[in-house]
Amino acid sequence: MALSMALSRAPLSRWSFRLSPLKPAPFFTFSRYSSSIQLQPNCKISSSASLPTEESMASPLQFEAPNGKKLNWKPLCLYYTQGKCTKMDDPVHVDRFNHSCSLELESNGLGLKNFRAQKFDYFLVLDLEGKVEILEFPVLLFDAKTMNVVDLFHRFVMPTKMSDQRINEYIEGKYGKIGIDGVWHDTAIAFDDVIQQFEAWLAKHHLWRKEQDGLLKDAAFVTCGNWDLKTKVPQQCVVARMKLPPYFMEWINLKDIYLNFYKRRAPGMISMMRELQIPLLGSHHVGIDDTRNIARVMQRMLLDGALLQLTARRTAGSPNNVQFLFENRI
């Protein structure tokens, strides 16, 4: 089917180059649960938000992005993202929280003339949270043809090698200041249970079958950096006393794609969004928010003509060794 028809369904070698300096761009960010809002010039917000807990009274925001377009923003219901929202029949709750995973198309002003057909049908945008053990495991299923998120998988993860007191301190420090520690305590499950549910989700979307070598089908993980799949998932599998699943053997590091496509270095998600003048929505370092923002960066890069290729692969028979496929990388 032609790309234009597909989009109508959506709610939307070697390089030699000189690194160019970052240019400041209109940019703003606000935390989903914090009353503090940081603004740069040319960005307008019509109301403030204060949300000490997930079930507090959240106020939808209307803001003007750098391109002048007015957008409405509401915090995601974190019970809904995990399939556990019990208030879908409450009009007040539904009005104040977002219960959709779709994204608005990030326009680059050039339409689709630079869009390139991709090697993968789907991208799985992953951004883990948790330094000691994984605390949050969010994945967005991104359709490479419609350039929209079609589903999400989101679980909070319960550490297995920490005392209850240490867990409480860990979660308070990580999520307490933005008011989602209660949701975490209500919903967190063990990592091996997360992986079991994740595999069922992959199978539902026909992206994976255990009987067929356990690799992804027509899909690839996209991360912002190598840490998530190179380091953290293998570490967590050791802690959980489980074998590293085969579908974690290769991935796309969006930072390397960005570097080689735009010919300039962006060390992280925030710098990419600043350069592309994409407003940061939600709370940075909340995994489900970061995956949505990474997907919006990827969406824009696809519109600009980027080709998303694998950037890293584990060596067959030696999963601790990783081969990096791009010469110029971060």
UniProtKB/TrEMBL annotation:
Keywords of this entry: Exonuclease, Hydrolase, Nuclease
Please state every residue range assigned to the domain named Exonuclease: 122-307
What name does this protein carry? Exonuclease domain-containing protein
Q: Annotated Gene Ontology MF terms?
A: exonuclease activity
InterPro entries per UniProt = 3-5_Exoribonuclease, ERI-1_3'hExo-like, Ribonucl_H, RNaseH-like_sf, RNaseH_sf
A Pfam cross-reference name: RNase_T
Q: Which residues form a coiled coil?
A: none
Question: Native species of this protein?
Answer: Abeliophyllum distichum
- Presence of keyword Nuclease: yes
